[in-house]
Amino acid sequence: MNVFRLTGDLSHLAAIIILLLKIWKTRSCAGISGKSQILFAVVFTSRYLDLLTSFISLYNTSMKVIYIGCAYATLYFVYMKFKATYDGNHDTFRVEFLLVPVGGLSFLVNHDFSPLEILWTFSIYLESVAILPQLFMISKTGEAETITTHYLFFLGLYRALYLFNWIWRFYFEGFFDMIAIVAGLVQTILYCDFFYLYITKVLKGKKLSLPA
Amino acid sequence: SNEPLRHDEL
């Protein structure tokens, strides 16, 4: 565990909690892509199946359980409790365009052709693009609530911090995982445009709105 | 081996 890993995990946790609290406090999931949230639930579920096969630490187990629990709580909010506020008309990204290539790739490029390993690889690839329905929704409506942008910022920051964690691990432990690194790079790059808007607009007190 | 990353990281 190094400082980048820990702050990355905490940033990820912050993002998830911010989203849940936003929906709970405003009693609304307006502006949130349910499709992205479904993809994140699939990511956590397929990656953390190792909860059943290996124990690493109390920290590791608790975080995995919290991530999975929050992912499904978010889905419950969006598709059941606050369904009336869900903006499905603008959540029109075709997720099969992500699921099919990502599924195919995880069968072709993995470390080991075994069910758990393929599911782990699938979750890594899927996570890298899971935010696209949300970004697509924002580009369609042309704006995002400020609290939603905080969510996106911490969610993007988390994988960027993991990139530093992997540099650290390569340097001090001689350890690297090409699948995670390439997917993590793709994931972080997808947020760059948003990071720019967040820094130049939201942090200066303006609402995030895109030119028509 | 990628064993550490697969289970240890989140």
Automatic annotation (TrEMBL), chain A:
One of its GO terms (biological process) is vesicle-mediated transport. The chain crosses the membrane at residues 65-82, 119-139, 151-172, 178-199. Keywords: Cytoplasmic vesicle, Endoplasmic reticulum, ER-Golgi transport, Membrane, Protein transport, Receptor, Transmembrane, Transmembrane helix, Transport. The keyword Isomerase does not apply. It is a multi-pass membrane protein. Its main location: membrane. One of its GO terms (molecular function) is ER retention sequence binding. It is found in: Cytoplasmic vesicle, COPI-coated vesicle membrane; Endoplasmic reticulum membrane; Golgi apparatus membrane. It comes from the Eukaryota. One of its GO terms (cellular component) is COPI-coated vesicle membrane. The keyword Cell inner membrane does not apply. Belongs to the ERD2 family. PANTHER family: ER LUMEN PROTEIN RETAINING RECEPTOR. This is ER lumen protein-retaining receptor. The lineage of its organism: Eukaryota, Metazoa, Chordata, Craniata, Vertebrata. The gene is LOC105910968.
